[in-house]
């Protein structure tokens, strides 16, 4: 059996950027120092400043993705680049580049397909108002549905194996891509790990493209859509429960009138209640059918994942 300690894996650092001329140079230099053998790619997403020039001057391989949105950029990066390991990080210099080596070591020690860098900070300016609560709520919701195996779902700093990247469907378009990255690992029960890393505020003159409430609502809507697609029985049973409660709320008074008077004086209400109950039954039926479809899709994803070689491991 070959000694995996002598094998030098290829590493690609992937940096999606939008108007990050203030910080991208520092990010490239930081990861060049932390991972000197890695290829560093900066994918520009229609920046209106000098992001491309600064990144290129810092020594990065610069490419562009014209479709606006972080999800589009990640889809393009994952499709274009081949490596054994992928380090994904935002280009805003808020993440700890010096931790990249430790993240890689943890990846190889544990044989994980994803290592998540958990953001830890003692600076109030690092998190905008509402971000901490929003992250906790959204992370809690996803882990409650898909499995509690990580604590910072919205971190933009992660390390992936090749088989993770090449089996990732990448269907999201914007900032909800972190949710999709997390659910993909949880749904396929991939080996994964976490490590705390330092998180700091943006540099002066650097502006985040994240809109707290708009993108928070968009992420929540994406989670609901994922539940419908990946846990249809759960989704449609919840819908069926709501419809059944509405049917009972309208129907019980009608039944009480019939028991008391022997007639149905409120026929429209009776028809409405019957409709809600029938819709409830149809919702359960839809859930049963789509649950079979979702299982077939999950099996296809799992087979695509298993078709690729596992990450190198330090034993």
Main features:
315 residues, alpha/beta, single chain, 7 strands
What does this structure look like?
The model has no long low-confidence stretch (mean pLDDT 89). A seven-stranded mixed beta sheet has the order 3-2-1-4-6-5-7, sandwiched between helices. The chain has helices at residues 24-34, 51-57, 70-80, 100-110, 131-146, 162-165, 177-187, 212-230, 232-261, 267-306, and strands at residues 11-17, 39-44, 61-64, 85-88, 114-120, 158-161, 192-198. The protein is elongated and about 85 Å long. The chain contains ten helices and seven strands. It is an alpha/beta fold and 315 residues long. Helix 2 (51-57) links the parallel strand 2 (39-44) and strand 3 (61-64).
List the helices and strands and how they pair.
Blueprint: E1 11-17, H1 24-34, E2 39-44, H2 51-57, E3 61-64, H3 70-80, E4 85-88, H4 100-110, E5 114-120, H5 131-146, E6 158-161, H6 162-165, H7 177-187, E7 192-198, H8 212-230, H9 232-261, H10 267-306
Parallel strand pairs: 1-2, 1-4, 2-3, 5-7
Antiparallel strand pairs: 4-6, 5-6
Helix pairs in contact: 5-8, 8-9, 9-10
């Amino acid at each position: 059996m070959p000694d995996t300690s002598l094998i030098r894996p290829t590493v690609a650092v992937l940096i999606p950027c939008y108007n990050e001329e203030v910080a991208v140079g520092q990010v490239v230099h930081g990861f060049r120092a932390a991972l000197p053998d890695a290829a560093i790619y900066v994918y520009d997403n229609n920046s209106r400043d000098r992001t491309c020039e600064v990144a290129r001057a810092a020594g990065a391989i610069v490419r562009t993705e014209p479709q606006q949105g972080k999800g589009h950029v990640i889809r393009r990066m994952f499709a274009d680049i081949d490596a054994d390991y992928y380090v994904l990080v935002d280009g805003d210099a808020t993440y700890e580049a010096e931790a990249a080596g430790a993240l890689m070591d943890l990846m190889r020690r544990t044989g994980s397909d994803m290592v998540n860098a958990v953001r830890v900070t003692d600076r109030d300016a690092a998190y905008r108002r509402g971000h901490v609560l929003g992250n906790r709520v959204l992370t809690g919701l996803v882990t409650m549905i898909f499995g509690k195996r990580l604590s910072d779902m919205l971190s933009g700093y992660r390390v992936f194996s090749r088989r993770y990247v090449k089996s990732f469907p990448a269907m999201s378009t914007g900032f909800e891509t972190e949710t999709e990255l997390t659910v993909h690992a949880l749904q396929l029960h991939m080996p994964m790990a976490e490590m705390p890393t330092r998180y700091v505020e943006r540099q002066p003159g650097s502006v985040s493209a994240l809109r707290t409430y708009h993108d928070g609502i968009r992420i929540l809507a994406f989670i609901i859509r994922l539940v419908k697609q990946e846990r249809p029985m759960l989704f449609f049973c919840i819908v069926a429960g709501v419809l059944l409660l509405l049917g009972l709320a309208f129907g019980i008074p009608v039944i009480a009138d019939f028991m008391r008077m022997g007639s149905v004086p409120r026929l429209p209400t009776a028809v409405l209640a019957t409709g809600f109950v029938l819709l409830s039954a149809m919702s359960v039926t839809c859930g049963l059918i789509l649950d079979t479809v979702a299982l077939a899709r999950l099996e296809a994803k799992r087979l695509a994942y298993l078709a690729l070689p596992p990450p190198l491991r330090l034993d």
